[in-house]
Design a protein that fits this description.
This protein has helices at about 25-30, 35, 50-60, 65-70, and strands at about 1-5, 20. The protein is mostly helical and about 80 residues long.
Amino acid sequence: MDHVVPRYRGGPHAWTNLVSACPACNRRKGGKTLAQAEMRLLHQPVEPKPTGRYLFETYLEENAEWTRFVEGWWE
């Protein structure tokens, strides 16, 4: 994950300022802005949808009985 506007430059720690980046691109950008790094976003950052998978998947291994309540709400 990479902050589009680095936090030390005033960028917020929010979904709208976070993007996924491969390790090489993350190192290339470092603490620079997109313009300084001569990079561009492929997609605008957005907050992920709060699906059942996103919210509960890590808990379902220990709580299999929850599955019937979140099935169909995965995507």
